[in-house]
Amino acid sequence: xxxxxxxxxxxxxxxxxxxxxxxxxxxxxxxxxxxxxxxxxxxxxxxxxxxxxxxxxxxxxxxxxxxxxxxxxxxxxxxxxxxxxxxxxxxxxxxxxxxxxxxxxxxxxxxxxxxxxxxxxxxxxxxxxxxxxxxxxxxxxxxxxxxxxxxxxxxxxxxxxxxxxxxxxxx
Length: 171
Fold this sequence. Notes:
The chain is an all-beta fold. Helix content is 0%, strand content 46%. The protein contains no helices and 15 strands. Strands 8, 10, 11, 13, 14 and 15 form a six-stranded mixed beta sheet that branches. Strands 2-1-5-6 form a four-stranded antiparallel beta sheet, with no helix packed on it. The model has no long low-confidence stretch (mean pLDDT 88).
């Protein structure tokens, strides 16, 4: 990973090996896509991020002027949810008209801890089967929006309730 400033000068470089990659759980067997996660310190002067392999550029993302905006529309506080399916919805936009991707997270304890439900979502809703999560009287949803460079998030305005239910068993 190489970080550059507005003049194209390298601010920092970060190296990692293939052990950092994991297989893509939703990709076809012959698809060479892998997933990696790397935490990089914030550098305020970065305007471009490059992904390199042996100095060959595999991908890059350039800074755009505006951050995405996001607002959770449902559930946003006070709801009592007992259906089998919770359709999480949000409004989001980017003044630069960048494509956005989303991460949905769920908390059972008013936001003290978070469970990531799904990543790389490309639409503004997520159908969540309640059998996949624990019930809670103090539930919250958090959704992150990213344009590939800037990331913002919103949290439900207040807690909501998901009725407690027996665990789902699978054989």
